[in-house]
Amino acid sequence: MHSIWQEKIDFPSYSILRRDKKCDVLYLGATLQNAVEAHFRQEQGAAVMLLEEKIISQMPELGGMGILRARDIEERRNLHRLRDYILGRRIPCELKIVSEDCLWVHPVKLFLFMTEGIDVYEQTAVCSVQGKRLDIGSAYVDAGEIVEQKDKKDPLYVYVFQDKSFYKIPGGDMKEIRRYKDVWLVGSPRRDLEGAMYSWEI
Fold first, then answer.
1. CA distance 184 to 193
2. Cα–Cα distance, 174 to 98 (Å, whole number)
């Protein structure tokens, strides 16, 4: 199932990496966090690259909830930097400032903007890592720094509701709730919330 964020979005054509490459910073995984960090590192002059095992346009988890939240001082500083950057560059990612510690964005639009001009490869899996050299089967990637995805947490499911009927669900165990256009998005660890139009896993 695709995410609500992938509707009416034209993804660029990402290549499969088939030749040796070098970079200063290599990001493993097409996540919004990696895209944002890679963008700022590239602006600082680093040669950055992003590798993803899956087909990016078919990754419902890329959408998530579209909620960016700061939990400590450093994260708040980074969130404010991103907020000011989005506003200053007028990035069309449907930014909504919820509070000093929370932003709502269209995550796929922000991901696509932040990865413009960055070497992004999909369907490229890492077979082995030897120091800072990665074997991807058909080639090698030499990186000064490798940024891997954080350990995957327990799955969270995003449900799309037409109205606020989700408040009536007993034991709904809702972790995140946000409004997007004319629907409500609800994040829950439960796999069976009734009444949703559809859902996807993040």
1. 13
2. 18
